[in-house]
């Protein structure tokens, strides 16, 4: 199977000399379609840095990221932003919804940029909001929704443009444990039923328990990489 994302000897350094920080240090890994991967490790071990580089939101100091077998470094800025838009869904700890747009409009936005026709946009938004349990709340703005509901909108927004992979940076960190569990159940179901590939950066034991693969980072390096079942 063609990997969704591959990193080759990826490093990200900040500063120099005595103040050099190796946020990521020689990380090579392959994410296969259908995986439900948790990247774990102590605070400062490089989890967010790895996710940002994997999604082409940041550039490495050395090494390479390949998305669907294409090297990011060979893409122009425009090509990369189009590629990200069309192939990668992002979910962030702080939800990052657009406050002035409704739940439905937040989901519709990327499809507008993709040029998806209106009727198709509407169909996909309705189906996806129902899928994440938000039917009836399509017209609410983020501030009229709870944290868990906002994160559900973020999952719907990430899924609705039919990406190859969802990169989720500590998606449950701001949620109480029951709301976090419900959200995780929903993402796990999307993985199991629809084969959506997920990579999480997380401290959440519930995500670690469900993950099909656990990658442990320490000081910017992979300490352990276990696939289960
Ligand atoms: N812009 C930056 N400038 C300097 N150092 C940075 C920068 N961004 C990250 N770092 C450093 O890189 C290292 C890895 O940071 P990163 O945010 O990836 O860790 P993390 O594992 O996601 O941590 P947490 O679990 O606390 O979110 C840390 O030592 C951090 O201080």
UniProtKB/TrEMBL annotation:
The keyword S-adenosyl-L-methionine does not apply. Residues 5-229 form the ABC transporter domain. Keywords: ATP-binding, Nucleotide-binding, Transport. Coiled coil: none annotated. InterPro entries: AAA+_ATPase, ABC_transporter-like_ATP-bd, ABC_transporter-like_CS, ABC_transpr_LolD-like, MacB-like_ATP-bd, P-loop_NTPase. Signal peptide: none annotated. CDD domains: ABC_MJ0796_LolCDE_FtsE. GO terms for molecular function: ATP binding. The keyword ATP-binding applies. This is ABC transporter ATP-binding protein. The lineage of its organism: Bacteria, Pseudomonadati, Pseudomonadota, Gammaproteobacteria, Oceanospirillales.
